[in-house]
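Hi Y.,

Following your request, here is the sequence exactly as I used it, all 92 residues.
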Amino acid sequence: MKKRKIEVFTAGCPVCNPVVEMVKSIANEEYNDVTVYDLIKQHDTNECVIKVEEYGITRLPAIAIDGKLLECCKNNAITREDLISSGLAEKI
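Below is the corresponding structure, written out as C-alpha cells. Let me know if you'd prefer a different format.
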C-alpha cells in the first residue's frame, strides 16, 4: 500500500507549531508519510523553497497532500475540521 505524502510548511513559530502537532496527531503513520519543512532553517538543497514556489504557498503554515496544497491553506486559518474533511485522517 502506498502512503500519502503529507508536507507541512512552517516558520517554526508559535502559530505554526500547533498546526504541525495537529497534523501529526491526525495523520495515521500507517497511511501517511509526514514531512515538516521549516522555512527558517531551510535545507542545503533548497527543496522546501522550490516546493513553496511550486505549490504557490503564500502563507504559513501550509499543508500539501500528495503534492496538492489544501484549499484551507490558501485563504483561511487551518482548523482540525479542515484537516479531517481533507481526508487526512482516513485510511486509504
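The mean pLDDT is 87.

Thanks again,
Q.
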